[in-house]
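User: Teach me something about this protein's shape.
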Amino acid sequence: MSTLAVAKRDFLNVRRSKLVWAPVALYSLFMVLFFYGQSSSTDPDFHMVLFSLLGIGSVLVIPLIALVAAYLSIAGERESGTIKFTLGAPVDRSSVVFGKLLARSVVVVAGLVISFVVGTVAAMVFVPDMSIAYGDYLRFIAITLLYAMGYVAIAVGISAATSARSRAIAASIAFFFVFNIGWFSLPISPTEVVKFLLEELGRNPENYQNLTELVFSLSPTGAYLNTMDFYMPARIASEEAPVSTPSDPFYTQPWFMLVILAAWIVVPLAFGTWRFGKAQLG
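Assistant: First, the predicted structure itself:
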């Protein structure tokens, strides 16, 4: 059984899951509401809708879609014992991990693409006079799908590294709260800790702004938020985050945010594959 065979079988099992499609429906609903909200404006702004989608998607909906779709992809089969059936065919464990990643990514990407189609239709129906920046919209969609795939890879990696449903659930919830809530909202967030330590060392704030920006971006959500320069006009992006310039360090540039998002796909998968390869399945 190859990676594609594992992916095909897993896709057939997960595609009808209501837990997967419910968050997708929620994201579609938010799109409709945001575009409908612009219909009452005398000067509807397409980029403000993108900004609203960026906020609700990064903090809640997209991580929820990806984690729910993938956190039990391997741990669930290990606990039930059905993983032995999969491994009973001529397939190695890394193929199982990558097959699960492929299947769950297809489901999540398909769901989000449907949401974006719904959003486009809503824009045309509710705000027919609004100017839609299709180039910015496509870049936003592409980066959003990359962000979603990062969270799918994280969930599959967690699932591969754990042996029981309860542990996979706990680890997924912990990851979400650490990197989506604690990383930005708590008084002792990593960024605030770095600021405090450098202030205690007597550094000038101007000298460590780039470092704190890097720490902020090390979260997948932080990296996603810092891609605004790709699709947001400066009038919006500059209000929410410093606009990067060519003279800024490479690790604060928008293109490097894509590297960080790609790393969130590679590293969790590598760790999960390593753990799953060493696991005793009984």
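Now, about its shape. The mean pLDDT is 87. The two ends are 21 Å apart (CA to CA). If you'd like, I can walk through any region in more detail.
User: That's plenty for now, thanks!
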